[in-house]
């Protein structure tokens, strides 16, 4: 079969959806009917908006398995109503069992945080906490061999910081206490396609788990 030519990106995604819907229905005629009855994901996934990291794809998951929030550099701010509302819905109402914050290598946000270039008012404000991490860990970062290594380390530090912010969310505090909700930090290596589970901040071995009293 000759490849189909598309005039623009919108035509490509609409046509792609039709292929997806047809193939999925052929494999499981009840798949979409089941999805339409509701959702019960076990994981809230907080990731970066980077187009190279579609969480369902890289985790080999199906629709309905991950409840997702994505933004620039997977950063969780204490005053971010958008993220807070996603967290509250996922934790208090969907009753997810785990929360994942996933950063990644080659992250544009982490790389931009290595310097103080003017990115525009909104991005400057958004990345301010990540740039503060760079300043706080200046000595450690300067010992790394190049900007790729520094950016990757900033991405890890940012995951830890985002989890610290999440630990203060009332719904998360309650769920940890009442039903053992766990928080996990991960880094996705774009060049290898692999996820790495991070240690707890401070180097303590924890299999990626954080709890409210750490």
From the structure above, extract its key features.
single chain, 214 residues, alpha/beta, Beta-carbonic Anhydrase, Chain A, 6-stranded mixed sheet, globular, disordered C terminus, lyase, EC 4.2.1.1, carbonate dehydratase activity, zinc ion binding
Describe it.
This is Carbonic anhydrase. Keywords: Lyase, Metal-binding, Zinc. Reversible hydration of carbon dioxide. One of its GO terms (molecular function) is zinc ion binding. Its cofactor is Zn(2+). This protein has a single domain (42-206), classed as 3-Layer(aba) Sandwich (Beta-carbonic Anhydrase, Chain A). The chain is built from 9 helices and 6 strands. The longest helix has 20 residues, at 147-166. By secondary structure, the protein is of the alpha/beta class. α4 packs parallel to α9 (170-179). Strands 1, 2, 3, 4, 5 and 6 form a 6-stranded mixed beta sheet that branches. The chain starts with 8 loop residues before the first helix and ends with a strand. The model is unreliable at 201-214 (pLDDT under 50). The protein has helices spanning 9-27, 31-35, 55-58, 81-93, 108-112, 121-136, 138-142, 147-166, 170-179; strands at 43-48, 66-71, 98-104, 182-189, 194-197, 209-210.
């Amino acid at each position: 079969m000759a490849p189909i030519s598309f005039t623009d990106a919108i035509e490509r995604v609409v046509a792609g959806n039709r292929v997806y819907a047809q193939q999925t229905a052929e494999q499981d005629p009840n798949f979409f009917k089941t999805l339409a009855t509701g959702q019960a994901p076990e994981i809230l996934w907080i990731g970066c908006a980077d187009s190279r990291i579609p969480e369902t794809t890289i985790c080999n998951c199906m629709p309905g398995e991950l409840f997702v929030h994505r933004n620039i550099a997977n950063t969780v701010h204490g005053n971010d109503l958008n993220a807070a509302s996603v967290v509250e819905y996922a934790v208090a109402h969907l009753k997810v069992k785990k929360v994942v914050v996933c950063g990644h290598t080659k992250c544009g946000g982490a790389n931009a945080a290595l310097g103080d270039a003017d990115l525009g008012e909104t991005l400057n404000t958004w990345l301010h906490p990540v740039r503060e991490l760079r300043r706080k860990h200046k000595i450690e970062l300067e010992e790394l061999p190049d900007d790729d290594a520094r950016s990757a380390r900033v991405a890890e530090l940012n995951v830890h910081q985002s989890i610290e912010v999440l630990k203060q969310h009332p719904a998360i505090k309650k769920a940890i206490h009442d039903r053992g909700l766990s928080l996990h930090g991960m880094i996705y290596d774009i060049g290898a396609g692999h996820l790495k589970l991070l240690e707890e901040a401070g180097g303590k071995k924890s299999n990626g788990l954080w709890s409210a009293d750490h």
